[in-house]
Each structure stands twice: as structure tokens, then as C-alpha cells.
Known about the structure:
The protein is mainly beta. The chain has one domain (about 1-25, about 30-45, about 55-280): Outer membrane phospholipase (ompla), Chain C. About 10% of the residues lie in helices and about 60% in strands. It is built from 3 helices and 14 strands. The chain has helices at about 1-10, 15-25, 180, and strands spanning about 30-40, 55-70, 70-85, 95-105, 115-125, 130, 135-140, 145-160, 160-175, 195-210, 215-225, 235-245, 250-260, 265-280. Strands 1-2-3-4-5-8-9-10-11-12-13-14 form a 12-stranded antiparallel beta barrel. The longest helix is centred in the N-terminal third of the chain and has 11 residues, at about 1-10. It is globular and about 70 Å long. The model is unreliable at about 1-25 (pLDDT under 50).
Amino acid sequence: MRFMLAGILALLIPFTGTAQETQSSPTGWIKEAVGNLNITQVSFSNWTQGGENTFAWQIIVNTKFSRKGEKLNWTTSGKFSFGKAKLGKSQFRKSVDEIKLESVLTYRLGKHVNPFLAATMLTQFTDGFVYTDTSRTKISDFLDPGYFTQSVGLAAAPFSTMKIRLGFAFKETVTRNFPAHYADDPATPELETIRFEVGMNSAMELSQKLSETVRLESKLALFSNLKSIKEVDVNWDSLISASISRLVNVNFNFRLIYDRNVSPKRQIKQSLAVGFTYTFF
């Protein structure tokens, strides 16, 4: 397990080396970092039709570091999002919280299909709660759970806008204080804090420009432990972004997750926001 975690960190965190390599070889790395700030505010004063004051904010930063060599291509991407919302007299509650890192190393053998090595990490910044009318219950925290996947296999790019990967994979679900929700196997008497699975992993990425101002980014990741079709984990994240001006964007995000170990039903989250966008580099 320690060897795996060391390999994950080596793949997922090349940022220091990236900065040094960029200085010595300016054309070696392609760097992208885009930030979005979305704010929603509604207030009422002597409003006879009813309603509650609302304030919500959300920050999203997407990064991508890629380098193409003669044979090796290395791409590391990250998505960092966090936001809170306040309705009426209630306290601010977390509405968005995600840290996602993915690193893919591809060795070019042919024009269409090539071997790859990939690692991903998914977790959150801070604690999460389930709320009732009178109380709240903490159910998650940073790296509690944390999802790690390592895969090796074949990658293809059938179109310039699409990338597909399929390979043999390991998946670890790591917890500390909340194993019952995410990592524990109820069929055993022990309380497991780490769930380790072996299976197959596939990933599809689509980046399509729908018009001069509208763009679609979609990622679908599947993991199967090869036991049952009902135990295929699904993580589908799609974003449609429309540029109103150089700094103003409209974003629609759709997220679907299915993990039978966490919930027997699919989880869906969607958001529509207007906000400010800034490209750092």
C-alpha cells in the first residue's frame, strides 16, 4: 500500500518539476489555469409575496499541465471547487466541495492506439454534514473519504475532440473517522477503514466547441470490480460554458455518480451559474 501511495503522489504532483522545466525549456510544457467566481444574491424588504434572502458563492479553478516529447506524453489536470450558500436566517452551508487530480503518461507506439499509465485522486477540502431542522451530523472530511485509482492499458483518440482509455486498474477508498459510509464491508465483523478493489477502468473525455462562444467539456469514468454489472462505479462530469464577454461566463454543470458501496441509487447534482472568469496563464 505504501508503494502504491508513493507512486500515486509521484504521478499526481509534478507541479514543482513543471515550473523548473518550463524555465529551462519554455516550449516544453503547456500550462493552463482558469478560475471562475460565481455569486448569487437575492434580498427582500417589505416584499408582500413572500421569499427569503439568499446569498451563495462558488469558486472553481481548473488547471492543466501537459508536455509532448518524442515518445512520451504527460498530462496532469486538476479541478478545485468550493462554495457555500445561505438561505434566510440559517448559517452558511457547503454547496460545492471537490478536489480532483488526474495524471496520464502515454507512450506513443502508433498513430491511433498507445499504452498508458494513469492515476487519479478525488476528495474534498473540508467537512461535510447532513442537516435536519434542528441539528447537523458530520459524515465526511478531507481524505475521509479519499478515492485513488491507478490504471494501465491502452489509450485511443478516435477524434481530435475525444480521448478514450481502457485498462486494468486498482482502486482504493481511504477513510479515517467515517468508514461505515464508504469503506467498510458490512459482510465482515471487522470495521475496515480502507477498501481495496481490483478490476477494469475506462475513461472517456470529450472537449467540443459547440459555437464561437459555447464549449462542452465532459468526462465519463467507469470502474468495474468484475463481480456484477450492478457494481460498476460511474462518475460522469459535464460542463457547458458560454462566454458572454471576456470576463463573464454562464456555466451549466451536470454531475452523476453511482457507487453501490455508498448508495444503491444514483446521485445527481446540477448547477447553473453566471460569474466571472479569469485565465491566469
